[in-house]
Amino acid sequence: MNELPQTEDWLDKQLREEAPYIDDSGFTGRVMKQLPRRHSLRTQRAIIILTATIVSVVIAYFGSGEGWFVREALVRAATLPPLTVFGFVIACGLLLIVGGLWAALTRIRDPIA
Amino acid sequence: MELTDADLLARVLVDGDQHAFGELVRRHQSPVRGLLRQLTRADVELADDLAQETFIRAYKNIRSFRGEAKFSTWLYRIAYNVFRDQARKRKELVGIDEAQWQSQADPQTADPGLRHDLMNALNSLPLHERSAIVLCCQNGLSHDEAARVLEIPLGTVKTNVLRGREKLKKILAAWGP
Fold it and tell me: Closest to A24 (Cβ–Cβ): which among B20, B29, B139?
């Protein structure tokens, strides 16, 4: 015959011990494969913003006499002194570098990826 | 830095991040599978199928989780509902299988180890007592949380736990000196 523990809560202790950790053994992978695919909200957001931008540009283009101001701006840029154009290119490059560095430094490392 | 369940849930809700949901599955798979193994009387294959269904149902309905209870409690509730739906299909809730099991689970013919006897005794309890015992005594839920999971009044949970414990003690006492 078995010896039973004498304390009042031996049953609770035994029951708790009867719940050992179950190893994953590919369970999570199987669940993930069966999850319904859906566009992430980021993707949806990007699609909405891109569509809105394209629609706005098209409206602005036709609403402004088929973009006469763009042609005007290009003509003006072509007549700028070379030194000004060079300065403008350098400024754009610096802006891109600063933007890239900021994005790299502020990115949070994803611990679950 | 380890993300909390709330952080992971936020990622799933805001970004639709499936990696975050995968981490939640990894964290909670053991207790959910354990609960379902107890409810299905150690039918490992069936329990794992039901556990998969539980997590898929949780993912589909994740927006209905309002954070009023712990995420694990919400999962237990889904798991219990999945089990109940499946049990209805198998007519387990009408009591035929219960009686069948109780006749099979005669402690006199079981393995003499206390651990085995305890499992056998637990499995011999009717579903309403077994589920209350498993949630409260094994998975550490409060009576109130168990009442929410099982969708029954708090007093009924307390009664089921009390009766279940009495029966377990009685069954296991038969093996004493």
Answer: B29
At which of B28, B57, B90 does a domain end? B90
Q: Which of B20, B25, B175 has its CB closest to that of A31?
A: B25
CB atoms within 10 A of CB A100: 10
pLDDT digits (tens, 9 = 90+) for A18-42: 777 899 999 999 999 998 876 666 7
Question: Are the C-beta atoms of residues A59 and B64 closer than 8 Å to each other?
Answer: no
Q: Does any CB of chain B come closer than 8 Å to the CB of residue A112? A: yes
Q: Give residue A1's pLDDT band: very low, low, confident or very high (50, 70, 90).
A: very low
A5: left (phi over 0), alpha (psi -120 to 50) or beta: beta
Domain for residue A71, yes or no?
yes
What is the Cα gyration radius of chain A? 32
Tell me if ipTM is over 0.90. no
pTM of this prediction exceeds 0.90: no
Domain-located, residue A99: yes
Q: Are residues B54 and B101 in the same domain?
A: no
Number of structural domains (chain B) is: 2
Smallest Cα distance from B100 to chain A, Å: 24
